[in-house]
Amino acid sequence: MSETIDIKTKKIIPSGLTNKFEKSLVLESLEQNILFHWDTWGKFQQAWTSRAYRSFKDLDKYLLLIYLINDNWQTLAGKFQYLSMDEFYDSESIIIDKINLIQISNDLKIPKETIRRKVNELQHSDILKREGKSIIFNRKGIQTQKPNDMIELLSIFIEKKSKALKGQDWFGEQLSKDYIKRFIKKYFTIVWLRFFKMQIPFLTRHRNVFRDLETWIVWGNIGLSHQYHLAKAAEKNLVTSEITLKSYYSNVADVKIDRGVNASSIADISSIPRATVIRKLKWLVSQKAIKKNKNLEYQMKKGGKLNSKISENFMLNQHSVAEFLTDIFDLMKNSEFKL
Question: What is the pTM of this model?
Answer without folding.
Answer: 0.89
